[in-house]
Design goal:
The protein has 105 residues and is an alpha+beta fold. Helices cover 26% and strands 27% of the residues. It has a domain of 63 residues. The strands form two sheets. The chain has a three-stranded antiparallel β-sheet. A three-stranded antiparallel β-sheet has the order 2-3-4, with no helix packed on it. It is globular, with a radius of gyration of 16 Å.
Length: 105
């Protein structure tokens, strides 16, 4: 069997960055209806924490900085910022809008 190269098909996803705070968790919950998702505060600092939510592969945890992605089949999963940056780009076509989005990230 021979190794072949494959390119990922271009698909459009929805995503929001989770910043590890209760307010950011509320932003995620406002943006997406993720059944059984919850914010889990750190015991040493209740103003920081993680998101715990079910995925197709079982429960996953979103940490501060992770992007929470809604996939093409309605599934949700976390993505580390470096992987997100390498894999996705804004769908915005206006160059100023793209610059503004990057400045906010």
């Amino acid at each position: 069997m021979t190794v072949k190269n494959y390119r990922k098909k271009p698909v459009v996803i929805q995503a929001i960055q989770f910043m590890g705070t209760p307010a950011s968790a509320n932003d995620v919950f406002d943006a997406f209806d993720i059944p059984n998702a919850k914010f889990v505060p750190n015991m040493s600092n209740l103003e920081e924490g993680t998101l715990l939510f079910p995925t197709l592969e079982g429960d996953h945890t979103g940490s501060a900085g992770d992007w929470i992605i809604k996939g093409i089949k309605g599934e949700f999963y976390p993505c580390k910022p470096d992987i997100f940056e390498a894999t996705y780009e804004s769908e915005a076509t206006d160059e100023n809008a793209v610059k503004q989005e990057r400045a906010q990230a």
